[in-house]
Design brief:
The chain is mainly alpha-helical. It has 4 helices and no strands.
């Protein structure tokens, strides 16, 4: 799996996964990587964007996703 990673994902893998790789499953690694790149404060932003989209019907789902990704780590 490391062959498919670069940048901060490799740093995460080498720091947290590699020392005890036997305890990691693909789904738990995916969730951990998601939490690493999208911390709780960023998840709060997604909730705010969704809430705003309900009140502003001219905002499309695609625009919402774009806004979310604009704030994501550039290495994703």
């Amino acid at each position: 799996m490391l062959a498919f990673m670069k940048g901060k994902a490799v740093d995460f893998f080498m720091t947290f996964v590699a020392p005890d790789i036997k305890i990691w499953m693909v789904d738990s690694l995916g969730q951990a990587l998601f939490n690493y790149f999208f911390p709780p404060a960023y998840k709060g932003l997604l909730c705010q964007l969704k809430s705003m989209a309900v009140h502003l019907p001219d905002i499309t789902e695609f625009q919402l996703i774009q806004k979310y990704w604009d704030g994501a780590e550039t290495c994703i």
